[in-house]
Model the fold of this input.
Amino acid sequence: MATSKRILECDLKGGNLVRTMIYPGTFDPMTNGHLDIARRALHLCDRLIIAVLNNSSKKTIFSVSERLNMAKTALEGLPGCHVMHYDGLLVDLFQKEQACAVIRGLRSESDFRFEAEMAAANKLLLPGYETCLLPCRSDLAFTSSSIVREVASYGGDISGMVPAEIIDVIREKFNRTDYRDKQNRRQQNKDV
Ligand code: COA
Done:
């Protein structure tokens, strides 16, 4: 189905067109880069679903409920923004929510290659699927969830990288004894 037709067929509530977009990610954890994309995406649609998904090639540090709660806290108060977890294919969620496009942030050429592959694969699975790539703010071009995790694991300052409301949750995760024990055990195994 052509996108324009799909947009026209989105929910008509009280005569108003409701354009739904999905911003999917692992969000392990959500960063200021993600927050900026979400805020800007809200200017392009009426309803933005932040979908906390699983990327099978990533082993996450934060559990699904921790990632979900952090995203909810960081995005609280943004009108039209809904945070949810989905355990399945993105195209299935796209169809279920009658979305008109998926939003993804673009930081670099390497991001583009990954995004182009993902967009093409999803389009093959669902012809009506569309991707909208938003270039990230230049001051956030080097922010990533893995850099946040790395800095936080050494007790460094993550305040410029993540929303203020979730700093304590991230710090606490890396301070927890079970996390530190696991890291120590891993290090000991490497040393022998
Ligand atoms: N600013 C700063 N950083 C950004 C950013 C931005 N605007 N946009 C992305 N990033 C970073 C993230 O911090 C993250 O960094 P990291 O890799 O160092 O941890 C990385 O770019 C991308 O992570 P994220 O945005 O959380 O999403 P993802 O690429 O892991 O998401 C899914 C991929 C979940 C959308 C994809 O795997 C998926 O759709 N899964 C569902 C199953 C499915 O349908 N699979 C088929 C896909 S073809």
About this structure: Residues 24-28, 31, 33-34, 37, 53, 55, 58, 89-90, 105, 107, 118, 121-122, 136, 140, 143-146 surround coenzyme A (CB under 6 Å).
